[in-house]
Specification:
This protein has nine helices and ten strands. By secondary structure, it is of the alpha/beta class. The protein has one domain: 3-Layer(aba) Sandwich (Rossmann fold). The strands form three sheets. A five-stranded parallel beta sheet has the order 2-8-1-9-10. α2 crosses α4 and α7 packs across α8. The longest helix is centred in the C-terminal third of the chain and has 18 residues. Bound molecules: cytidine-5'-diphosphate. The site of cytidine-5'-diphosphate (CDP) has 15 residues, from α2, α4 and α8.
């Protein structure tokens, strides 16, 4: 059966990665979390002192982009791990420090150009599920299936809070909620590749949809798109 590209975009904490991973596993496709790539660049900027209490040295980050190598590899439990210049960074990219800076890093056209180029190479052989903010609009405008995920800000903040606070008393709900609102605004209003629903994307509002029902619905979309693909 013909392989397709599935582009999943949407607001922060709508469960894009969970759905994308489920689909990739079910279809035996490659899964790429494009947000993790922007997070890795942000971590790189922090670790190299381009982002500090003195501010954000965008020029130095842009000049260093050619020395940055991001790779996804499966670990022994079949989980996809992210490596930044050979160092495992899957957990380090999820901290609030990275979350607070990532939208500013992702707004730089030079950063986007560099990552979009890598992302397109990953789709050359199809059989790919990629999630992010501009996958259906910029990275793969011809993707056979485009999904735009959304849910209320409160539902999303509660989900992210549960995920982050697991045993960590320093995380509070208000901070998580504010970060979600801040990133929504920043991602939707930026000049370069703003978060937009592609005209031909199917909207998936999962505020009131459980994971099983969601997966069943999306699989029916996948099957429709596969049938339409010559
Ligand atoms: O935390 P969440 O899963 O919602 O976000 P993410 O997918 O890890 O992405 C982190 C940030 O990277 C987003 O808030 C965007 O600013 C940026 N991003 C982007 O600009 N374009 C993408 N294709 C993916 C992420």
């Amino acid at each position: 059966m013909k392989k397709i590209i599935i582009a999943i975009d949407g607001h922060s904490s709508t469960g894009k990665s969970t759905l994308a991973k489920q689909l990739a596993e079910h279809l035996d496709y490659i899964y790429i979390d494009s947000g993790a790539m922007y997070r890795a660049v942000t971590l790189y900027a922090i670790e190299n002192g381009f982002i500090s209490s003195d501010g954000f040295d965008k020029i130095r980050l842009i000049q260093s982009l050619s020395g940055l190598h991001i790779a996804f590899k499966k670990d022994s439990s079949n989980n996809v791990a992210l490596f930044l210049n050979g160092q495992l960074v899957s957990s380090k990219i999820r901290t609030m420090e990275v979350s607070n800076m990532v939208s500013q890093v992702a707004a730089l056209p030079e950063v986007r150009k560099c990552l979009v180029k890598e992302q397109r190479l990953m789709g050359l052989n199809k059989g790919l599920v990629m999630d992010g903010r501009d996958i259906g609009t910029v990275v793969f405008p011809d993707a056979e299936l485009k999904i735009f995920m959304t849910a209320s800000a409160k539902t999303r903040a509660l989900r992210r809070f549960d995920e982050l606070s697991n045993g960590d008393a320093s995380i509070d709900y208000k901070t998580v909620y504010e970060n979600i609102i801040f990133r929504d605004k920043k991602d939707s209003s930026r000049k370069n590749s703003p978060l937009l629903k592609a005209k031909d994307a199917r909207v998936l509002d999962n505020s009131k949809l459980d994971q099983q029902a969601q997966f069943k619905l999306v699989l029916s979309w996948v099957n429709e798109c596969k049938k339409e693909t010559p």
